Amino acid sequence: MNPKIYPLQFEPILKERIWGGEKLKTLLNKPITSTITGESWELSTVEDDVSVVANGEWKGKSLTAIINGFPDEIVGTEVHARFGKQFPLLFKYLDAREDLSIQVHPNDELAKRRHNSFGKTEMWYIMQADDNARIIVGFKEKSNADEYLENLKNKTLLSILDTVKVKSGDVFFLETGTVHAIGAGLVVAEIQQTSDITYRLYDFDRVDANGNTRELHVDLALDAINYNKVETKKEYTKNINDSNEIVDCPYFTTNFIPLDGEISVSKSGKTFTVYMCTEGSFELEYNNSKLQYKKGDTVLIPAAMNAFILNGKASILEIYIS
């Protein structure tokens, strides 16, 4: 059977978090029902959190099911050859009303050995930032396990970590092993490997509604941490109606498209493409049909869609695997 290929949107998978808020609703129009919604998983095949198609002929089907049926058409010939029928990336929007925990993610080798999982290389695009909002990324200076443990014990860990003030449009690329935390007052688009493995180092001694603290993973983190000073901020061009490269790594490529008018897009069929609309709205024209997208929308363009038109006024993240 030859499927009718079309742009796919998915039901958001909403996650309550101790640090979450309500901006996913007020800014991105997500159907949240609580005052502590921290994450909207837009595109996921993480076990027990698999995205379900929200539009068209495949509405109600899981992303896993349609990839299993049509791997080359959906993920692309090269992505299928490399990853099989696994979808290799996870896409989220996050609302940090409070600081997230200080954490680290293992690399592929460690994650495979311990959890039979991918590692978690990720990037953040800052969509909205309150005044004086900041993030934590890496160490101020080269450190080591002993210094880290001593500061953790004395509750002075923040004194050796690098804090960076941020604004909307800033991008940070976090390789595995980078100690990090998203700070309060930020809405972030996050692109990462398909993994939910996080080692929590410090959680500011917070307790939940029942008075319980969240689990820490101090020992697991020891050999996952990169103790070197790292550069995480990515500078990029913003040429109108062009794909401006932000990140190009083995796991994904992310471009920034400042759309103002109409552009024709051609694809090779080797990889899927994902568009995350971070501002404004746009129309996608394909096979004589026109689909509308707005800020907060995420759309998966199957690899078999090799020619289409984007039209509108929007800021768009374009993600694929190269």
* Tally of domains: 2
Fourth-tier CATH superfamily name of the largest domain: Jelly Rolls
CATH arch. level architecture of the largest domain? Sandwich
Oligomerization state of this entry?
single chain
Number of helices: 7
Unreliably modeled segments:
none
Give me the count of strands: 19
Can you tell me the CATH topology of the largest domain? Answer: Jelly Rolls
List the helices and strands in order. Answer: EHEEEHHHEEHEEHEEEEEHEEEEEE
Shape: globular
Main sheet properties: 6 strands, antiparallel
Which structural class fits the helix and strand makeup? Answer: mainly beta
- Order of strands side by side in the largest beta sheet? 1-2-5-12-7-10
Residue share in β-strands: 35-45%
Distance between the termini: 28 Å
Evaluate the radius of gyration: 20 Å
Fraction of residues in helices?
10-25%
Protein name: Phosphohexomutase
Domain Phosphomannose isomerase type I catalytic: 10-117
InterPro entries: Carb_Metab_Reg_Kinase/Isom, Man6P_isomerase_Firm_short, MPI_cupin_dom, PMI_typeI_cat, RmlC-like_jellyroll, RmlC_Cupin_sf
Domain Mannose-6-phosphate isomerase cupin: 246-320
